Automatic annotation (TrEMBL):
<dbReference type="InterPro" id="IPR036901">
    <property type="entry name" value="Asp/Orn_carbamoylTrfase_sf"/>
</dbReference>
<dbReference type="Pfam" id="PF02729">
    <property type="entry name" value="OTCace_N"/>
</dbReference>
<feature type="domain" description="Aspartate/ornithine carbamoyltransferase carbamoyl-P binding">
    <location>
        <begin position="13"/>
        <end position="155"/>
    </location>
</feature>
<comment type="function">
    <text>Catalyzes the condensation of carbamoyl phosphate and aspartate to form carbamoyl aspartate and inorganic phosphate, the committed step in the de novo pyrimidine nucleotide biosynthesis pathway.</text>
</comment>
<feature type="binding site">
    <location>
        <position position="272"/>
    </location>
    <ligand>
        <name>carbamoyl phosphate</name>
    </ligand>
</feature>
<feature type="binding site">
    <location>
        <position position="93"/>
    </location>
    <ligand>
        <name>L-aspartate</name>
    </ligand>
</feature>
<feature type="binding site">
    <location>
        <position position="66"/>
    </location>
    <ligand>
        <name>carbamoyl phosphate</name>
    </ligand>
</feature>
<dbReference type="InterPro" id="IPR006130">
    <property type="entry name" value="Asp/Orn_carbamoylTrfase"/>
</dbReference>
<comment type="pathway">
    <text>Pyrimidine metabolism; UMP biosynthesis via de novo pathway; (S)-dihydroorotate from bicarbonate: step 2/3.</text>
</comment>
<comment type="function">
    <text>Reversibly catalyzes the transfer of the carbamoyl group from carbamoyl phosphate (CP) to the N(epsilon) atom of ornithine (ORN) to produce L-citrulline.</text>
</comment>
<feature type="binding site">
    <location>
        <position position="65"/>
    </location>
    <ligand>
        <name>carbamoyl phosphate</name>
    </ligand>
</feature>
<feature type="binding site">
    <location>
        <position position="271"/>
    </location>
    <ligand>
        <name>carbamoyl phosphate</name>
    </ligand>
</feature>
<comment type="similarity">
    <text>Belongs to the aspartate/ornithine carbamoyltransferase superfamily. ATCase family.</text>
</comment>
<keyword id="KW-0665">Pyrimidine biosynthesis</keyword>
<feature type="binding site">
    <location>
        <position position="143"/>
    </location>
    <ligand>
        <name>carbamoyl phosphate</name>
    </ligand>
</feature>
<protein>
    <recommendedName>
        <fullName>Aspartate carbamoyltransferase</fullName>
        <ecNumber>2.1.3.2</ecNumber>
    </recommendedName>
</protein>
<feature type="binding site">
    <location>
        <position position="115"/>
    </location>
    <ligand>
        <name>carbamoyl phosphate</name>
    </ligand>
</feature>
Length: 316
């Protein structure tokens, strides 16, 4: 079945997370994204799929790459895209969120892409509006399009996801990217390892069905993919690491630690990177790095997601 035929079976109006999606649904989105990669590599990149539709990018947290990626994706599909950055005061967050949602809803958008610092905020917003809602990252909960773009990057490079060993390393505790990736990769049949110091792992990590490693070299052994995470210092409420220098020594990906993984292991990072903290520049810019390709796949995956949810929108 071609991607356009399978996409007819995507049954969700929103994309709030990877949780609850089946392997078939994830694969369908990845197949649709492959088509979008081809479109994005042409001179004429514009499609009419979302012509007449209004997409609002509502970002309560600052973001450059995710917001611009969603903006380019929407524009390539022909939507009118509006960016709204809202600085949220921590006290009034709940109220501000609902008020903003109701105000925007009255303007009759078709899709709202939301990023918020609180887990669950995107779901709450989706319950208040009449349009489709796409989660662009909510607190430490989920970041579904990041997991999809990571899966697409892996599949394009390795030809499959099933049976691969993926090591997710670093600040897993504060990472919505890690959570969405664990769910997506496991659903698609990969073995997932979480490699981190105890202070940067969620207490309930055992429930995720992942292998846990507290030693970087052991955790990377024979891995097909090494996924590094940013040390999210802005989310840290206490001292989770002794110093960034010491962190790099034990947990930073350098050439020597990478040598523990398979020789053709892919190096990935969602960005923005702290060079010299979780990854050395040599590795980030080295031959195994797929970090720039991830950015390209981000636009394609977001085009696929926007198209898939838009198919559930009413025609009138
Ligand atoms: C990620 C995020 O915001 O969760 N970045 C991104 O989407 N560009 C990862 C991160 O901030 O470290």
């Amino acid at each position: 079945m071609s991607a356009s035929q399978t996409s007819l079976t995507f049954q969700h109006r929103h994309l709030l997370g990877i949780e609850g999606l089946t392997a078939a649904e994830l694969t369908m989105l990845l197949d649709m994204a492959e088509d979008a990669v081809a479109v994005s590599r042409q001179v004429e990149k514009k499609r009419a799929t979302l012509r007449g539709r209004t997409q609002i990018n509502l970002f309560f947290e600052p973001s450059t790459r995710t917001q611009s990626s969603f903006e380019i994706a929407g524009k390539r599909l022909g939507a009118d895209v509006m960016n709204m950055s809202v600085a949220s005061s921590s006290v009034k967050k709940g109220e501000t969120l609902i008020d903003t949602a109701m105000t925007l809803n009255a303007m009759r958008p078709d899709i709202i892409v939301v990023r918020h610092s609180q887990a669950g905020a995107v779901q709450l917003l989706s319950e208040k509006v009449a349009c489709s809602v796409v989660n662009a990252g909510d607190g430490a909960h989920e970041h579904p399009t990041q997991a999809l773009l990571d899966a697409l990057t892996i599949r394009r490079n390795k030809g499959r996801i099933e049976g691969l060993t993926v090591a997710i390393c670093g600040d897993i505790l504060h990472s919505r990217v890690a959570r969405s990736n664990i769910l997506a990769l496991q659903t698609l049949g990969a073995r997932v390892r979480c490699v981190a110091p105890t202070t940067l792992l969620p207490a309930q990590i055992g429930r995720f069905g992942v292998e846990v490693h507290h030693d970087m070299r052991a955790g990377l052994k024979e891995a097909d993919v090494v996924m590094m995470l940013r040390l999210q210092r802005e989310r840290m409420t206490a001292s989770f690491i002794p110093s960034t220098k010491e962190y790099f020594r034990y947990w930073g990906l350098d050439r020597e630690k990478l040598a523990c993984a398979k020789p053709d292991a892919l190096v990935m990072h969602p960005g923005p990177m702290n060079r010299g903290v979780e990854i050395s520049s040599e590795v980030a810019d080295g031959p195994q790095s797929r970090i720039r390709e991830q950015v390209e796949m981000g636009v394609a995956v977001r085009m696929a997601v926007l198209e898939a949810v838009a198919r559930r929108l009413p025609e009138c």
